[in-house]
Amino acid sequence: SVPVGETTPGRIFNVLGEPVDNLGPVQSSTTFPIHRSAPAFTQLDTKLSIFETGIKVVDLSAPYRRGGKIGLLGGAGVGKTVPIMESINNIAKAHGGVSVSGGVGERTREGNDLYMEMKESKVINEQNISESKVALVYGQMNEPPGARMRVGSTAPTMAEYFRDVNKQDVLPFIDNIFRFVQAGSEVSALLGRMPSAVGYQPTLGTEMGSLQERITSTKEGSITSIQAVYVPADDLTDPAPATTFAHLDATTVLSRGLAAKGIYPAVDPLDSTSTMLQPWIVGEEHYDTAQGVKQTLQRYKELQDIIAIPGLDELSEEDR
Q1: Is 11 annotated as catalytic?
Q2: Where do the ATPase F1/V1/A1 complex alpha/beta subunit nucleotide-binding domain residues begin and end (predicted)?
């Protein structure tokens, strides 16, 4: 069981729900077990609505679904924290919601950087912890595999309290969903199970399903989750990312090329996808504008090689 409720935002917890930020014990009278069943089918909220992030390129080209699951694809150093911080700020200020950030098997340094950035942007208020908008749960890569795997259950448990009891909009982050699978693979090997494809655990689909089914919206409140997905060797057919994609409503792809040019957030509108970009959901005008932008960018991409070698003079008047 882990502490849940209004006293959790602004604090850092480990897998057992113990505070690790040297700010003393958490004054919480309510605890929830981390192993909970997913909401019943009849409780789910299925209506389609857009979750506005406030990031124009995302809201235009690959909008998020309120209560959906979003994958954030990008390697190290492409600025994953930029869309994360924007989304936390937006859900706190525009929707009065809270966020829970789950660091699953990532570097301690990254967790520390995120904490410092949150304090700087006042998402975590040091002077008055009760005004903070995000709780942090960390199981970094030096922890045993069991701890790293179970952090994936601890963070959603804290989010479920705000959804079910406070009836709020919640934004849980999982960084990184691949490390959750990796930890499960290590546990599976320790238990002596026969490995499946590419050496992953035979229960990969079940483990992923039991986590993802909990991160969902009910008629009480919404959970819109953003999950960073590391793609090993950029192979999208690898069983870990492939199993994750089956659960996602939208993917935001971060491009190293854009980050190198200093364009943040480095979202690539051509590679990013969303099930919400349909004319009957976002409207004809939004849909046509988004497709027009993508066509222009695609044409520019095709012309880049011509511009790079023979130069602009070789282009037709229209292409210029």
Answers
A1: no
A2: 54-274
Q: What's the pLDDT tens digit per position in 50-99?
A: 988 888 999 999 999 988 999 998 777 787 777 877 887 777 777 777 89
Beta bridge partners of 73: 229, 253
Asked if residues 251 and 69 have their Cβ atoms less than 8 Å apart, the reply is no
47 a catalytic residue:
no
State how far the alpha carbon of 140 is from the alpha carbons of 109, 134, 179, in Å: 9, 18, 10
Instruction: For residues 313-320, give the mean pLDDT.
Output: 76
pLDDT in tens, 184-213: 999 999 999 999 988 999 999 999 999 999
Question: Which residue of the set 36, 56, 107, 299 is catalytic?
Answer: 107
107: annotated active-site residue = yes
Among residues 11, 65, 66, 80, the one annotated as catalytic is: 80
Q: What share of the chain is helix, strand, coil (3-state, %, to 5)?
A: 40, 15, 45
The CATH class of 2-277 is: alpha beta
Q: Which of the following is catalytic: 11, 69, 106, 148? A: 106
In this prediction the pTM is: 0.86
Domain segments of the chain as ranges: 2-277, 281-320
Sign, CA dihedral 151-153-159-165, equals negative
When computed from its CA atoms, the radius of gyration of the chain, rounded to whole angstroms, is: 21
